[in-house]
Amino acid sequence: MADRDKTGVALLSFAHLHQRKWAETFKKDSRVALIGLWDEDHSRGMKSAEEYGIPFFKDLDTLISGKEVQAAAICSENNRHIELTIKCCNRKIDVLC
Prior knowledge:
Layout: E1 7-12, H1 18-28, E2 32-38, H2 42-52, E3 56-57, H3 60-64, E4 71-74, H4 81-90, E5 94-96
Parallel strand pairs: 1-2, 1-4, 2-3, 4-5
């Protein structure tokens, strides 16, 4: 559960390697709570979640449906950026893409 004084961030996909930099940066930032990670490639997602010590969500909607996530870093394959951005924006989640 996110601390009320922190921004809850979801990491959406590790298809692009720069998600690692976002994960490291957010993990070090005391203003951020990493809520969870989703990846369309479950194997890659579970491995990354274990590496960064954050929960893995097999279902994207489960991760972004609650009030804990205020922002999402999207590093999926380029052809999925629009779909994921729209899902987040429909839930009023800020997007870093």
